[in-house]
Design a protein that fits this description.
It is built from 18 helices and no strands. It is mainly α. The protein has a single domain, classed as MFS general substrate transporter like domains (Growth Hormone, Chain: A, Up-down Bundle).
Length: 422
């Protein structure tokens, strides 16, 4: 049948051109550049804060106490996530981004003047969790609104570079500042400056036209119980478990063994994830996002094992490459699945649940991982977390098969072909 008569594109070359044009129109725009740069600045703040565990260690904190204080930020954000998601869906994304950046700046500025472990450092950590929850939830809801569904995984993957690039910059920049006379105070003042830059850029953002404030969805807890989303919420916990081990305890691992530099790990992590997203981010939209969760989690688990069993610097480099590739694949596809299974008026709430579960895992898992390190050492801990990630992956696919039924308004994660190789 002639393609013109059927109304469908049958020529692969023409389909490729159409798909490429959709991606260019969606991403090569002023709004995308602006939100990308605002997110980049906010994430530079977050990436500098990978040195926060070292800051606590310098004041005499044990691994268990470090894990507990780091997890405090999760407690703050978990409590406010239902409110954040509702406000974002009802009032819009921009004001939450701006307010979150200001709160984040206040917390990092507070760190710069703390000299001992006590109530002030816990309070500042709570404030940091609140600011991160507000800004990051709103950033991801904003970008999900503006992306076409057929290319959502790819668009999220490319936007996610704004969070990955700082991993290769922030920790290394922090290393340089720490080696200077400014020390940890300099690190926290630099983090404050990046938060304020993000705020200034966010002042120029426009509200997404697709934002449906009048028809906000079911709400935080009904969405949490929705059968089609339960496996997604579970796999977020699995992914967050691996992230907690890497982002919280690789820093203290490097300090404890007195070898390697944390910047080496995060540089390898970020570069690998960015290369994947710049070259192969089209793959999940083509083969189906759900199918890509497995390779992402397997690679992340393999990276943790390498960190635990191979001495620096090669363990940090190899582990950074594998965990970075796992992150590059898994994070955007999980976000894409979650937002695709939510209505437009529910996306802010979906992202709020997504990030709340990350914080819940940080709050719950960080002290447990810290205790395991104290009892059994770093190698055993990293391998144990890796095995837990792999077990969680299996449970996720069992849950997908058992619980997920395609309901009206939820489409299958089938391939969209062809997808341009960007």
């Amino acid at each position: 049948m002639d393609g013109g008569e059927s109304g469908a594109v049958t020529d692969p070359t023409l389909a490729f051109v159409e798909s490429s044009a959709v991606v260019r129109r969606s991403l090569l725009t002023k709004w995308f550049a602006l939100v990308f740069l605002a997110s980049l600045a906010a994430e530079l703040t977050n990436s500098l804060l990978v040195h926060f565990p070292g800051f606590l260690q310098s004041m005499g904190a044990t691994e268990l106490r470090i894990g507990t204080i780091v997890g405090v930020s999760g407690a703050a954000s978990i409590v406010v996530r239902p409110w954040i998601g509702r406000v974002i869906d009802r009032r819009g994304r921009r004001r939450m981004i701006r307010l979150g950046c200001l709160v984040l700046a206040a917390s990092t500025l507070s760190y710069a003047f703390i000299e001992s472990i006590g109530i002030p450092v816990v309070g500042a950590r709570l404030l940091q969790g609140l600011g991160q929850a507000m800004a990051m939830t709103a950033f991801w809801a904003y970008i999900a609104d503006r992306l076409p569904e057929a290319h959502r995984s790819q668009g999220i993957a490319l936007f996610g570079i704004s969070g990955l690039a700082p991993l290769g910059i922030g920790p290394a920049l922090g290393d340089q500042i720490l080696a200077s006379r400014f020390g940890y105070q300099g690190v926290f003042l630099a983090a404050t400056a990046f938060s304020l830059v993000s705020f200034l850029l966010a002042m120029r953002l426009e509200e997404p036209e697709s934002d449906d404030h009048e028809n906000a969805g079911a709400g935080f807890f009904p969405m949490l119980r929705r059968p089609s989303l339960r496996p997604v919420w579970f796999v977020i916990l699995v992914l967050a478990l691996g992230f907690t081990a890497a982002f919280v305890f690789v820093t203290t691992y490097v300090t404890a063994i007195g070898a390697g530099r944390v910047g080496t790990f995060f540089a390898a992590y970020a570069v690998t994830a960015i290369v994947w997203r710049l070259t192969l981010s089209w793959v999940p939209d083509r083969v189906g996002p759900v199918r890509m969760i497995a390779p992402g989690l397997i690679l992340y688990a393999a990276g943790l094992i390498v960190i635990g069993l191979i001495a620096p610097p090669w363990g940090l480099i190899g582990g950074g490459v594998l965990t970075g590739l796992g992150h590059g694949i898994s994070f955007p596809v999980v976000v894409a699945v979650a937002t695709s299974r939510a209505a437009p008026g529910e996306r802010g709430t979906a992202i709020a649940i997504f990030t709340a579960l990350f914080d819940l895992c940080l709050f719950g898992a960080a002290p447990v991982i810290g205790w395991i390190i104290e009892q059994f050492g770093y190698a055993t801990t990293f391998v144990t977390v890796a095995l837990a990630v792999l077990a969680g992956m299996v449970i996720f696919y069992v849950a997908e098969r058992r619980w997920v039924k395609l309901e009206e308004g939820i489409r299958a994660e089938s391939a969209t072909v062809p997808i341009p190789h960007v």
